[in-house]
Amino acid sequence: MMRPTDADEAEIEASKAPLLEHLIELRKRIIYSLLALLGGFIICFAFADPIYNFLTAPLAHALAGQPGRHLIYTQVYEKFFTNAKVGLFAGLCLAFPVIAAQIWMFVAPGLYKHERRAFLPFLLASPALFITGAAFVYYVMLPYALKFFLGFETKGSKDALPIEMMAKVSDYFDFVTTLIFAFGLTFQLPVALALLGRVGIVSSDLLRSSRRYAIVGITVLAAIFTPPDIFSMLSLLVPLIFLYEVSIWLVKGIEKKRDKERAEADAEVDVRADE
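That's the Sec-independent protein translocase protein TatC sequence above. Prediction below.
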């Protein structure tokens, strides 16, 4: 880790506050975050039906040309609570920039200036990677997964009843959002490994030498989080392996930058010692 400068130490000393002030500040940030979430929930709950229709578009496309196909709900309150979950899910996405900003404003005063410069790119990259993972689910993996599951329907015969998929509105929403969260979180791999590399817990050499074990772990992860068809599994496996390789290069770049900063700091100390 790069050693702090005198200016960094002075900045941290100036930002120190009693525990009560930290608790008051934490309460303020939590209140702002909850207000943002509440506002996002109210807005998205008002538009719950269009949002849900957007989420069901891949299923509607898979069932195109089959009149009479529809979603159902079997409890009187099920559609209402599904709309509430839609509002909460979409409201959280809408309020995330505000929540992330509140977290940053609470944590940043306790960091050195060079630490704030180092961690800010990761804070910005995290939602971008989550959105990438969610978009990958919606536009690439989900259509093939639905096609796979619909393949288990049977037309029936004289001696057997037909088997037709009639999904519940709540079950479909849970299925889609689980996949979105699973892909969004696993796409955070470069951010997690780069942060670990930044603090010196892992190195590019360690990641490179552990590649085969990482691929086994990623394969297990893909098998757990995806539907049981080969395309869905590969749709998560291949991007994660690619992101792992990207992480190695990111950590390598961080190490080079850290070595350069350390050499400059040591040179500055030597100059001061000569004076």
